[in-house]
């Protein structure tokens, strides 16, 4: 589990291809002291397992399934990446709950750089629209952000200078591909409602869903 607050920007220093996927060697400074073999770390929002640590570098093995569903297919030696170690029990939840399980790939279609802040507009597959809410949470390349505007196949986020400077948002341009993870709460709500629909073979499904959700809502006296 992660929070979407990037610890530092790392760098891809080596890529080894194999029939099973890729082995990535990544350099970093701030994350290294707290890493151990077997730890989870988010790389551009993708949960990976540390298999080796040496000096200021660590190694992860990426399987073909992950490569095909994320922007890892485009990674090159020298690329700068977002790094976040896994959340600890006593850690700060500064963003929102992030699993490191990428749902889809988005594309930057517009960048509006203002005096200090910047607005980014991303396109994404319409089937994921149901997981977005205005001022709700979205994870972009591992960064926890808030949606400012939502359309059927695009959404906008606004960034402060600190976020731009401390993440790879500073490197983005129109056409850049990004990993998107939608808020897990929306996915759980959808799963509950779909299961409830299957359990109720008769009657109005919308009414059944409302009645079902009311069981978990405490009404004031």
From TrEMBL:
Keyword Transferase tagged: yes
Top EC class, one word: transferase
GO molecular function, a single term: riboflavin synthase activity
Record pathway: Cofactor biosynthesis; riboflavin biosynthesis; riboflavin from 2-hydroxy-3-oxobutyl phosphate and 5-amino-6-(D-ribitylamino)uracil: step 2/2
Record EC number: 2.5.1.9
Range of residues in the leader sequence: none
Swiss-Prot/TrEMBL keywords: Repeat, Riboflavin biosynthesis, Transferase
Presence of the UniProt keyword Repeat in the record: yes
Biological process according to GO: riboflavin biosynthetic process
Chain ranges of the Lumazine-binding domain: 1-96, 97-193
Function: Catalyzes the dismutation of two molecules of 6,7-dimethyl-8-ribityllumazine, resulting in the formation of riboflavin and 5-amino-6-(D-ribitylamino)uracil.
The name this protein goes by in its record: Riboflavin synthase
Native species: bioreactor metagenome
